[in-house]
Each structure stands twice: as C-alpha cells, then as structure tokens.
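Work Package 3 (structural annotation) set out to generate three-dimensional models for the target panel prioritized at the project kickoff. During this period the team completed the workflow that converts sequence records into discrete structure tokens, so that structures can be stored uniformly alongside our sequence database. As a representative example, we reproduce one entry of 223 residues exactly as it appears in the project archive.
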Amino acid sequence: MKAMILAAGEGRRMRPLTDHTPKPLLKVAGRALLEHHIINLRDAGITDLVVNGAYLGEQVKSFCGDGSRWGVNIAFSMESKPLETAGGIINALPLLGDAPFLVVNGDVYCPYSFGELASTSLPEGAAHIVLVPNPTHNSEGDFSLLERKVIHRSDKPWTFSGLGLYAPTFFAGLAPGARPLKPLLDAAIDEDRLSGQVWTGPWTDVGTPERLASLDGELSSTF
C-alpha cells in the first residue's frame, strides 16, 4: 500500500514561522511534523510514500530526498500553486497506483497506528476516514457517525483528523485543478460511500504558533 503526505499548504495562520519554512517542516520534539508521519508510516510497514509540495516546495523535496535515510521510498508531486486537499490528491493519482491508498495531512500530529487503517476493506469509489473528538477550535464538528457509517446529522461530535483511506475511483471523473476535499466527502455521505472510525489518542491540528508551542512542550518530555 502507498501513502500520500499532504505538504503543499502555505500555512498562513502560522506566520511568521512559515515565512521561510514550510509548515510541515516546523519541528515538535526536535523533529519536523513531516518526519513524524514518515516514521510512523514506516513503522506500520508502509514504505512507498508520495509527498506533494508547492509553497517552498523545494525545501520539502530537499528535506525528504529519496526517503532512504528513513528506510522508505519517496516520490514527489510538485504543484505550481497549492491545489488544496482534493486537488493535490488528484494531481498525484498517477503516482499512487490502482489500489486504495492512505492520505495524511502534513500539518497534524497524530501517532496513529496506520496498520489498522491500511487493513480496512474498501469498496470501489469509497473512502474511510479517521475522526477525532471535536477540539476547542472546531467545537461544532464536521461529521456524525452511526457505527462505522459517516452520516449527516445536526449534532456533529467528530472532527476529521486529516487521515483517510481512499479508493482511486473515489476521485474518478474529477478534473485537475484546485479543489477542497470536504464537498467530496459530503457527496460520498449522500451516496453511502463514506465510512469512518474514531481515534481518541493524541491528535493536534498545528494551526497556530500557540498550538505548535503547546504541542512541543508536551512532547519534548517524552522523546
């Protein structure tokens, strides 16, 4: 199985930290956020990775190299400008192959066991996402869940973690270009093509310098 790490965003809310450093290369506990994902995926036996880049993308490419220093293989999907989440995935489809693949947001910290997600059975045209309890900065939530089926409901106790498993056909027929992921997930709910599971372990959307500093303080004592 292959995995894609999304690393193309500008990280505007992280300025001035991201004026000269791409957000996924910001460090917590002495390691770049991107490196935490690479190691976690490798330890789950997932060693064929695709990383996209746009904003300061050459820094991302230089940092990763071919991935050999971590014992993985890394291919790059470079974008002339950020294509958003779904657009970035669509752009990288030729590198991801014909089998279901994992996608991980490069700007979250989550020591999730990817082996469990990788072993999930996925029908054609479907996706399976990992949800977390709503953080304070997204208190209204994104989704509801009935057993393992993601559903529309007024109460939304779960937030999308940025981790998911996708069949390539989930993106079938979609034209290249900038495109967010959320409308595709909503459409998949309507068509009963979206399942999910809950992760209650550590998870942080590193969206502000304050969250980065708080996470670094928490993790520095454990690494």
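The longest strand covers residues 158-166.
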